[in-house]
Design a protein that fits this description.
- By secondary structure, the protein is α+β, with helices and mostly antiparallel strands.
- The chain is built from five helices and 22 strands.
- The strands form four sheets. A seven-stranded antiparallel beta sheet has the order 10-11-22-13-18-19-20, with no helix packed on it.
- It starts with 6 loop residues before the first helix and ends with a helix.
- The chain has three domains: 53 residues, no CATH class; 93 residues, Immunoglobulin-like (Sandwich), CATH 2.60.40; 178 residues, SPRY domain (Jelly Rolls), CATH 2.60.120.920.
- Helix 2 packs antiparallel against helix 5.
- It is elongated and about 125 Å long.
- This is Tripartite motif containing 36.
- It comes from Hucho hucho (huchen).
- Keywords: Coiled coil, Membrane, Transmembrane, Transmembrane helix.
- InterPro entries: B30.2/SPRY (IPR001870), B30.2/SPRY_sf (IPR043136), Butyrophylin_SPRY (IPR003879), ConA-like_dom_sf (IPR013320), E3_ligase_FN3/SPRY (IPR050617), FN3_dom (IPR003961), FN3_sf (IPR036116), Ig-like_fold (IPR013783).
Length: 384
């Protein structure tokens, strides 16, 4: 009679008839899994916010560079938050999201003055989002941005100043009359400052503007001046009471800085050769100039508080106040610039781009993936 076989005995005596086919099946499953990972849609690489082209005032222009992974993205989303304010229950500032952006830049509105903001951006492709870009922070100015262009009518000397086509940059040059007169000069000649002002004046409120002076500039004076003082300078260019002709006593007595002891209808700072020179605090200040010489910022910001009668000078990139003083705002005040062998204009500076690093990483990653596919293919062929 047939005997009963226990399940334990059946399992102990079980022996697959095709062991080689089982190994091949396992390798096929493994290869299929890795090939699926390689060919499946991957999230895009994160973009990089371009600090050289981004500007933040009461409105912010944020620009970024897309990762060069050869595949187009559907859109980008910019997020920003005000640091130190608008905290949620966990004590962290809430991120605000902009609408979908279909380009490399966007504008953020309604930023609060004198505040620190953090920004980040990420890309989207096929509903897959990239990681966030590294966060960058910007400090908004203490007052709304004041827009103006250089005035080519009021006192502008086309013989010695070259104005840009958009009237947002100006360069000092040696005019033909000066070059012809130089033939008769053997020991030297007097060369004065040529002034140019903004085409819009200020008669109330607080206003802020920023500009860039080239590092190789010889001498540039920047600041504010009243309409009455400007008329005096333009009509009396050799008047020794104006800063157009600063008589130097020659012994560091400080007599040439007397005007800074009292409130005047102008304030001008001297910048040049990569340095910024602050005026003396008083006529009795010592002759040590080291504490009055600062490295010239890449961008200089000026804030005029007309109602309070005070002007401030900033490092526009860090919003650090470098100098402030009282100014007599008895008339309409204008942004004023005096040039001697130099140029000045709105800020433009370049920065190191990280797109090259991202592209190199993409090449290495693609090469590694190709090598891995080749290794898997050879392994499958070997075991089969």
């Amino acid at each position: 009679p047939p005997r009963n076989i226990s399940p334990r005995e059946v399992m102990c005596n079980f022996n697959p008839s095709t062991q080689g086919d089982l190994i091949t099946l396992l390798w096929s499953l493994l290869c299929s899994h890795w090939l699926y990972i390689l060919i499946s849609p991957l999230p895009p690489l994160p973009p990089i916010i371009d600090l050289s082209r981004s500007r933040v005032y009461n409105e912010g222009l944020l620009c970024w560079q897309l990762a060069e992974d050869t595949l187009a993205t559907d859109h980008q989303v910019l997020e920003y938050r005000r640091l130190g304010k608008e905290q949620d229950e966990e004590g962290a500032s809430r991120w605000r999201l902009t609408d979908k952006v279909y380009g490399p830049s966007t504008v953020v509105c309604d930023l609060e003055a004198d505040s620190l903001y953090s920004f980040r951006v990420r890309s989207c492709r096929n509903s897959l989002y990239s990681p966030y870009s590294p966060e960058v922070t910007f400090h908004t100015p203490p007052a709304p941005a004041f827009g103006f262009l250089f005035n080519d009518n009021c006192g502008f000397s086309s013989e010695r100043l070259a104005l840009g086509k958009r009237r947002d940059s100006v360069e000092s040059m040696a005019g033909m009359a000066f070059l012809l007169a130089a033939e008769r000069v053997q020991t030297g000649s007097y060369m004065g400052l040529d002034y140019i002002i903004g085409d819009t004046g200020i008669s109330q409120g607080r206003h802020y503007w920023a500009f860039r002076v080239e590092p190789h500039s010889y001498l540039v004076k920047v600041g504010v001046a009243s309409d009455s003082k400007l008329l005096e300078w333009f009509h009396n260019p050799r008047d020794t009471s104006s800063p157009r002709y600063d008589h130097d006593s020659g012994h560091d007595s400080g007599s040439e800085d007397t005007c800074y002891d009292l409130s005047q209808p102008f304030t001008l700072l001297t910048v040049g050769m990569g340095r910024m020179f602050l005026p003396k605090a008083s006529i009795s200040a010592d002759g040590d100039h080291s504490n009055r010489v600062l490295p010239m910022p890449q961008r200089i910001g000026v804030c005029l508080d007309y109602d309070a009668g005070r002007v401030y000078f900033y490092d526009a990139d860090t919003m650090r106040c470098l100098y402030e003083r009282q100014v007599d705002c008895s008339g309409t005040m204008y942004p004023a610039f005096g040039l001697m062998g130099s140029d000045a204009g709105p800020s433009t500076h370049t920065g190191l781009s990280l797109s090259t690093l991202a592209f190199a990483f993409m090449l290495v990653s693609a090469f590694s993936q190709v090598c891995f596919v080749v290794i898997l293919f050879l392994s499958v062929q070997y075991f089969s």
